[in-house]
UniProtKB/TrEMBL annotation, chain A:
The reaction(s) this protein catalyses: L-cysteinyl-[protein] + (2E,6E)-farnesyl diphosphate = S-(2E,6E)-farnesyl-L-cysteinyl-[protein] + diphosphate
The protein's name: Protein farnesyltransferase subunit beta
Keyword entries, A-Z: Metal-binding, Prenyltransferase, Repeat, Transferase, Zinc
BP GO terms, sorted: prenylation
Pfam families: Prenyltrans
From TrEMBL, chain B:
UniProtKB keywords: Magnesium, Prenyltransferase, Repeat, Transferase
Protein name, UniProt field: Protein farnesyltransferase/geranylgeranyltransferase type-1 subunit alpha
Catalytic activities: L-cysteinyl-[protein] + (2E,6E)-farnesyl diphosphate = S-(2E,6E)-farnesyl-L-cysteinyl-[protein] + diphosphate; geranylgeranyl diphosphate + L-cysteinyl-[protein] = S-geranylgeranyl-L-cysteinyl-[protein] + diphosphate
Cofactor: Mg(2+)
Region ranges (Disordered): 1-32
Enzyme Commission (EC) number: 2.5.1.58, 2.5.1.59
One MF term in the entry's GO annotations: CAAX-protein geranylgeranyltransferase activity
Family annotation (InterPro entries): Prenyl_trans_a (IPR002088)
């Protein structure tokens, strides 16, 4: 961001002018860059043994932080009082990613709690008895339904899965989506994603629900290539994930302009190694998962669409697929059906496939737990607090912990050709013990739990 | 509404509430995620539950929702019920927007607030137009990229109107910060959807000139490059044939100490869509490579190679682009 305008006399003069006329965007960017580079510099100045230690994921501390939250939250959490299913999901999913589980007592309490949030008319509210007494589902209700269902799937087991009143959920989902599409109501790309993700995860996805969703998401792909929350809004990382994942779930990803989409996505990675949510905005941790996932998925998308990924071919997601995106381009350029079927085993299975960018992307995340320590944020200097945060200078929370770990997991498994074999050590930054559980990227639940839920629900 | 540390009288001690029995939250015997709520919070929500379950749509219930919102502006059930009360009481929605202004001042990223504004503005119709446009402007003066505010502003323009000064406003924002992608996005929105302008194709030439200027001043700025591409959405042939675009790329390529990434990327797209490169272009690209010798016929491949070098963060992307070049490309 410190280039000079075309036609200026000397680099020095240009730099001076640039500094004097720096915009807000440039100033913010410069600040984050310097903070991050400070971290990287510190890291590179350490002997390699210390570096290795620095990169170790502080599992115990994270689990401690997470479990503590489940048992008790302080008064500052009152702003999340209407969003407890989300807290449930962020915490329980994070624990599952770390390969751990909550004890039986907590598990039963969680299932019971979510059941109290369940609306007899369908769906889940933000707290016990908070579900709408009125029949129309509201947007935030949709989001808490997503969080609750994902939590129950993550907990797994008969009691957890059977507690979901699936058909009521389907009815209210339909009411919401169909009503909103028709009346131009309270709909956005995230609403589409939460509804479709829930319906799909519960094996209740049907044509009526899906009808106009593809058209809507298509109308949200912007001139930049990314996807916005509503038609006309700015292309945004979170909505791009939601939109793209939904299109995959309903088997319409082909309808998007995939070339522009991937071009936008790859340019979201910044010099710091992390990813921006929007063009010319700052990098944030949460978008690592989005980016890595979207990049990897685009390459599989055409193939997946033809194979109808939702039906019996979940493992196809993890299979190594030929780049059929090639076909797409050759065909569109040549304008003929006769496309080259020479499967180019592309070296690009993701922007991060060669390890370097993956290292930078993931080290950016892992470093922050240590960065916390270096800055002396915690009172007890011997302990690292646990948890993750947005970027240097921000404080940790459950939301960022959840999505950072999810992003790490996706990055670790992005090279994997086979669902059953674990990633090679080179895929994992730091000690191999940093390896997390793999997730199903479309739903963001631990893969094993997704399989269990799929078996459970598809039989009923 | 009390705030800033003023001690509210507990509801249980207010005579006007003496007929109401508060309803506690049914957390169950062993709740997870129990939040240590303050007494004030707990009591307010207990009384709220009482009026909500009784469906009492009275002025005192309205006041109570305001108190609940002050404690937790993210409780959608409270906002939803407030809307029902406002409708039943046929309340003045201009005053309601005043109320939202105050709540928004400490909660601007809260989805509920924006949704509530939209609801109130929709009911008010054209009366709310200038107020809502002013309100979003105020938000942008503190955060020019505020996502909710931009969505709201776009909704206002489309539902209620007010397009007259919008292009000028975008211009203003871009003068202050040429990197503001939200402003570029809004510009695109205006160009393509304003009923007062001629539509994308009519506006295209002047927009290309405007964008070219922005690019020349900061070639490393991704926003105008994407905007430029967007001006030719679904019409690649016009992009390829537009002399301004090619000339712009050449100018940037020949400059020193500037980023060439976006210019090269644009050229790659042009070549992939049939651009016949001039000698000048071939020379400009060759000047960026370390290759000597006779000009290779595969200029697009060369561009990809240069990009691999000047944009190493995306080396794999450029390799993939190279491997997927259409066969007829020069």
């Amino acid at each position: 961001m410190s280039g000079s305008a075309v036609g200026t006399d000397s680099p020095a003069a240009a730099a001076e002018t640039a500094a004097a006329t720096r915009t807000v965007t440039q100033k913010d960017q410069w600040m984050v860059e310097s903070q991050v580079f400070h971290t990287y510099q510190h890291y590179s100045s350490l002997p390699s043994k210390a570096q290795f230690v620095l990169l170790e994921l502080q599992r115990d501390k994270h689990i401690e932080f997470l479990t503590k939250g489940l048992r008790q939250l302080g008064p500052s959490f009152s702003v999340l009082d209407a969003n407890r299913p989300w807290l449930c999901y962020w915490i329980i999913h994070s624990i599952a990613l770390l390969g751990d589980s909550v004890d039986d007592e907590l598990e039963q309490s969680a299932i019971d709690f979510l059941d109290r949030c369940q609306d007899p008319e369908g769906g889940y509210g933000g707290g016990p008895g908070q579900a709408s007494c009125f029949s129309i589902l509201y947007l935030p209700h949709l989001a808490t339904t997503y969080a609750a269902v994902n939590t129950l799937i993550t907990l797994g087991g008969y009691r957890s899965l059977s507690s979901v009143n699936r058909w009521s959920v389907l009815m209210t989902l339909k009411q919401f989506i169909i009503f909103s599409m028709h009346h131009g109501g309270e709909i956005d790309v995230r609403a589409c994603y939460t509804a479709i993700s829930v319906a799909s995860a519960l094996s209740i996805l049907d044509d009526e629900l899906v009808q106009n969703v593809g058209n809507y998401i298509l109308s949200c792909q912007t001139y930049e290539g990314g996807i916005a929350g509503e038609p006309g809004s700015e292309a945004h990382g979170g909505y791009t994930f939601c939109g793209f994942a939904t299109m995959l779930l309903i088997n319409e990803a082909n309808r998007l302009d995939l070339a522009r989409l991937i071009d936008w996505v790859v340019f979201r990675q910044g010099v710091e190694g992390g990813f921006q949510g929007r063009t010319n905005k700052l990098v944030v941790f949460v978008f690592v998962r989005v980016r890595v996932y979207v990049i990897v998925r685009i390459q599989h998308s055409l193939q997946c669409n033809r194979r109808k990924i939702d039906q019996g071919g979940v493992s196809a997601l993890m299979q190594r697929l030929h780049i059929s995106l090639d076909e797409h381009f050759v065909v569109s350029a040549a304008g003929e059906g006769d496309c080259s079927t020479e499967s180019t085993e592309s070296s690009v299975r993701s922007d991060l496939s060669e390890g370097e960018q993956s290292v930078e992307g993931t080290s950016f995340i892992v470093d922050e737990t240590r960065h916390n320590r270096e800055e002396g944020h915690q009172t007890d200097l011997d302990r690292v607090e646990g948890g993750f945060r947005d970027k240097p200078g921000k404080s940790r929370d459950h939301y960022h912990t959840c999505y950072c770990l999810s992003g790490l997991s996706v990055a670790q498994y992005s090279y994997s050709e086979d669902a059953d074999s674990p990633p090679l050590p080179c895929a994992v930054l730091g000690p191999y013990s940093n390896l997390l559980e793999p997730i199903h990227p479309l739903y963001n639940v631990v893969l094993e739990r997704y399989y269990e839920a799929y078996e459970f629900f598809s039989r009923r | 509404m009390n705030s800033h540390g003023d001690h509210k009288m507990p509801l249980s001690q207010r005579p006007e509430w003496s007929d109401v029995t508060p309803v506690p939250q049914e957390d169950g015997p062993n709740p997870v995620l129990p939040i240590s709520l303050t007494d004030d919070f707990r009591e307010t929500m207990d009384y709220f539950r009482a009026v909500y379950l009784a469906d009492e749509r009275s002025p005192r219930a309205l006041g109570l929702t305001a108190e609940a919102i002050a404690l937790n502006a993210a409780n959608y059930t409270v906002w939803q019920f407030r809307r029902l009360i406002l409708e039943s009481l046929e309340a003045d929605l201009h005053e309601e927007l005043d109320f939202v202004d105050v709540v928004a001042s400490s909660n601007s990223k809260n989805y509920q607030i924006w949704h509530h504004r939209r609801w109130a503005a929709e009911k008010l119709g054209a009366e709310a137009t200038s107020r809502e446009l002013e309100f979003t402007k105020k938000v942008f003066s503190a955060d020019a990229k505020h996502y909710h505010a931009w969505s709201h502003r776009q909704w206002v323009l489309q539902a209620l109107g007010g397009w007259e000064d919008e292009l000028a406003y975008c211009q203003q924002l871009l003068e202050v910060d040429i990197f503001n992608n939200s402003a570029w996005n809004q510009r695109y929105f205006v160009i393509t959807r304003s009923p007062l302008l001629g539509g994308l194709e009519t506006m295209r030439d002047s927009e290309v000139s405007y964008t070219a200027e922005a690019i020349i001043s900061k070639p490393e700025n991704e926003s105008p490059w994407r905007y430029l591409r967007g001006l030719f959405k679904n019409d690649m042939q016009s992009l390829v044939n537009d002399p301004q675009v090619l000339s712009l790329c050449l100018t940037v390529l020949k400059a020193e100490n500037v980023s060439h990434v976006f210019a090269l990327s644009m050229l790659l797209d042009l070549l992939c869509h049939g651009l016949q490169p001039s000698e000048e272009l071939k020379n400009a690209i060759r000047a960026l490579t370390s290759e000597a010798g006779p000009p290779g016929s595969d200029l697009a491949r060369t561009v990809c190679s240069v990009l691999e070098r000047v944009d190493p963060m995306r080396i794999n992307y450029w390799k993939w682009r190279k491997s997927t070049l259409p066969s007829q490309v020069v």
